[in-house]
Design a protein that fits this description.
81 residues, mainly alpha, 4 helices, 78% helix, 0% strand
Length: 81
Amino acid sequence: MNELENLQSLGLTLPSPAYISGALLFGLVGYVAFKRGRKTSRPALTWTGVALMLYPYAVTQTWLLWVVGAALCVGLRLKWD
């Protein structure tokens, strides 16, 4: 536990399980969208997939991760067919 306290004193914290599960979920959905967009030559699907895979690296709050991910998934669903 001493290492954890040292990291927290430096301002580093571990992500919550909700954040990790959201990042994995949206990353997998993004990967599927990326592969489908490349296969069907649809740039909207491809770039939405890239956004879903990469945005968790830029977002630090869990609630924002889920809100942005849900919005991107809704946009993806509208572009899918």
